[in-house]
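ARCHIVE CARD
Drawer: 12
Card no.: 0347
Subject: one protein chain, sequence and derived structure
Cross-reference: see card 0346
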Amino acid sequence: MTQKILIVDDMQANLNELSQALKSQEHDIFVATHGRSALEVARSEIPDLILLDIAMPEMDGYAVCSQLKKDGITRNIPVIFLKERESEEDEAKGLELGAVDYISKPCRPPLVKARVKTYLELKRQYDIVENISEIDGLTGVSNRRHFDQVLEQEWRRAIRGFSRLSLIIIDIDYFRLFNENYGCTAGDDCLKQVAQALNQKAKRSTDLLARYQGEQFACLLPLTEAKGAFVMANKLRDCIISLNMPHGYSAVADHVTISQGIATLLPYPHSEATKLIVSAEKALELAKLEGRNQISFVD
């Protein structure tokens, strides 16, 4: 997988030099010329490594690093400071803020490449471990923790791009009765089959299918209007029906079915992503009140 590097420097010549030195089919290079834009790019692109100049006007590298480490989305991105002349106290300050290393200016390409290679490999190994913790152990799809992280990321991206974001929350109808009457093993198998069937329909690279809680799943759809979300919900409903999984204790069918709540919002600055969750949960409750095996929408 191609890894991303963000280079932050207020001097265009330095950006060009580092970008050329690190140019590779294995890297996607992003650049920023000041602290504010660096934070925006970091939050939207989630780079694997940041090379950060210390001496920048308005917002210096220390302030940028401090903000990165306070943000749940960016706090685990390794930061290498680019320095000209720093005292031992300044270097200690940077490390205390969370930077992993320093590279002295003028940068020597062989040294930069070696340091970058080392920290990208460490980040890759970290991501492998992190990925394991982002997967629901039973169903094999993303867990709630990962869902919350991606939702926050996509919410901010939607604010910047002035685009709509849709969410479908899915509930297996009468799952408690299924579990009680068929047993926990059959219940777990039901959850696995439903999760995998739903996940196969979330085909776009930007879509996310996650286990939300218990017998509920969430399907996050960036850049998706309400009409598109309805199309997806119908696909999800049909794929579960096609499983033809017997459910003799359901009040709506003799097989497993799902109820779905859809919310589509246009995020605005300073709004919270939880607004989308609340709307989708309200829509799901409406689907249940309407008899289950339904798709409901709240704008």
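Annotation on reverse: The chain has a mean pLDDT of 93. Residues 49 and 116 are 8 Å apart (CA to CA).
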